[in-house]
Design a protein that fits this description.
Strand order of the largest sheet: 1-3-2-4-5
Number of helices: 8
Distance between the termini: 80 Å
Strand content: 5-15%
Largest sheet: 5 strands, mixed
Shape: globular
Structural class: alpha+beta
Helix content: 55-70%
Length: 229
């Protein structure tokens, strides 16, 4: 009986010994997988997937040279305070430093997070673009954020303040000229993983939020360097 127990104990120890390397190997593999996933999330947070198709920006409001080496696309929502702060505090500095010098084509992509009133304001801004004053209209909408409810009358008043033909803008809105374009823009943004504003694409790099001015400059310079190689 004692001999049998001894054999059983030896077999148990041998089995335990054989399992130990497998457990170690399994732990190493799991660690590699976790580290790989963490790296993917960290690296992927600031950029789009490599090789993704460029966004179609045909007909959208832009500043700069059409064939500039870097394209910067802005997704913002007129009800978003961070978007307001970016536009009023940083956008013009970026435009002066990179767009007016021919290095960057700056595009605004029609987008809203879901509020239909903001969606209508987005349509109005594109109607303003037909008259060549998108950026003036956009800036005034942000300046009035929290003061207006984006009613048709208020959108018309903003148009009047920036020197637009208000009758033409009202007709553009009444006809729903850009309704489908705005909805398509929102769906495209969602497909690209845009779920907060502001979000920017600088060529193939994504920037989320109203980050420090120097961070915008760093990413733009990275893309300018790549374009020269």
């Amino acid at each position: 009986m004692t001999k049998r127990r001894s054999v059983q104990r030896r077999q148990a120890l041998e089995n335990e010994s054989s399992r130990t390397p497998m457990l170690i190997i399994g732990g190493i593999i799991a660690g590699i997988v976790i580290l790989g996933l963490a790296a993917y999330l960290i690296l992927g947070q600031g950029s789009t997937a490599q090789g993704s198709e460029p966004l179609d920006v045909t007909g959208l409001p832009f500043k700069g040279e059409a064939d500039a080496p870097v394209t910067m696309i802005e997704f913002s929502d007129y009800g978003c305070s961070h978007c307001r702060d970016y536009v009023l505090e940083k956008s013009e500095q970026l435009i002066d430093g990179f767009v007016e010098t021919g290095q960057v084509k700056y595009v605004v992509y029609p987008y809203y997070l879901g509020n239909p009133l903001i969606g209508r304001a987005t349509e109005a801004a594109l109607c303003a673009n037909d008259q060549g004053k998108f950026f003036e209209y956009q800036r005034t909408l942000f300046q009035k954020q929290g003061q207006i409810q984006y009613s048709p009358e208020e959108l018309t008043q903003v148009a009047s303040e920036v020197g637009l033909d208000t009758e033409a803008l009202n007709q553009c809105l009444a006809n729903g000229t850009y309704r489908d374009r705005v909805e398509q823009g929102r769906l495209t943004a969602v497909q690209r993983g845009v779920n907060s504003t502001p979000t920017f694409f600088v060529n193939n790099q994504r920037i989320e939020g109203n980050v420090a001015y120097d961070q915008f400059v760093t990413v733009i310079n990275q893309e300018l360097q790549l374009a020269q190689n």
